[in-house]
Design brief:
This protein is an alpha/beta fold and 274 residues long. It has ten helices and eleven strands. The chain is 36% helix and 24% strand. Helix 3 runs antiparallel to helix 10.
């Protein structure tokens, strides 16, 4: 879902200043850690030498959002991105971009990479390169705590579920024979479930874990974990294989040293990185 094309190698002083000012206004972290040389940086085909320019929404909690107290850009994807940039010895410049425009910006070369929970799909793989996934999530069937009538997806036959009509979970529910109550999103689905107006709702495990972390168990429970697996990763244009390889190397180090597990625990209460 996100990608970027290489800009011209010659960056003028004015353009560089513009990028710096833009970074300051969009939650930039500008602390390089390890010693990536200018030449090595150029080999990665970066928009700005020495900096990883990353597209993210900034409005997608808990992955990319602004802390209510400090106003700082934060979130799981933001923290993973900063950790990757640190491993590569690069500054990181976040360009906050609406989802509808994020791939167009990548294609136009405004960013090096998209870091915003981009799910890997065959359609996207046909056009973009992806890093090793840093988020792995199953679908879950959520019910009221104590309800033992649903122990498999097949048990949704004849049950009422609350689903967004545009989600893949809607299709799963209808395929299982459920009577679907249309909702706008997770919050409305949970409200109907808690009120006893529906029997279940199907959603992404990450959504459920974030809700539980923020609200406690709230009388809900996972009845079924589906076979459907969603994997999210950094997305690049196909002109950036060297950058993809470098990011993969950084992610491997972050997995080995426990950083990805630590960040997963911070935001979700369990490891969602593998």
């Amino acid at each position: 879902m996100r990608r970027t094309r290489i800009l011209a190698a010659a960056v003028t002083t004015a353009a560089a200043l513009t990028m710096v000012l833009g970074a300051c206004s969009s939650g930039t972290s500008a602390t390089p850690a390890q010693g990536t040389t200018a030449a090595a940086s150029d080999d990665l085909g970066l928009v700005t030498a020495g900096a990883l320019t990353v597209a993210t929404e900034g409005t997608y909690r808990p992955f990319s959002y602004h802390d209510e107290s400090s106003g700082d850009l934060t979130g799981y994807d933001v923290d993973v991105t900063r950790a990757v940039a640190k491993k590569l010895g690069l500054k990181v410049v976040f360009q906050e971009t609406q989802w509808d425009a994020i791939f167009a910006g990548l294609d136009a070369g405004r960013f090096d990479v998209i870091g915003n929970q981009v799910s890997i799909t065959p359609e996207r793989e046909a056009k973009y390169l992806f890093s090793t996934p840093y988020t792995v999530s199953h679908g879950v069937v959520v019910v009221k705590e104590g309800d033992t009538s649903i122990t498999s997806v097949a048990d949704l036959q004849g049950k009422t579920t609350a689903q967004s009509l545009t989600s893949n979970w809607y299709q799963l529910a209808t395929d299982a024979g459920a009577d679907v109550q249309p909702v706008e999103g997770w919050a409305q689905a949970v409200a109907l479930l808690e009120q006893g107006r529906v029997d279940a709702t199907i959603n992404d495990q990450l959504t459920y874990l974030d809700y539980i972390k923020e609200n406690g168990q709230s009388g809900l429970a996972v009845a079924v974990t589906t076979d459907d697996v969603s994997k999210s990763a950094f997305a690049f244009t196909k002109s950036k294989p060297a950058l993809q390889e470098a990011v993969d190397g950084a992610l491997a180090e972050l997995a080995a040293d426990g950083t990805l597990t630590e960040l997963s625990q911070k935001y979700f209460g369990e490891d969602v990185s593998k």
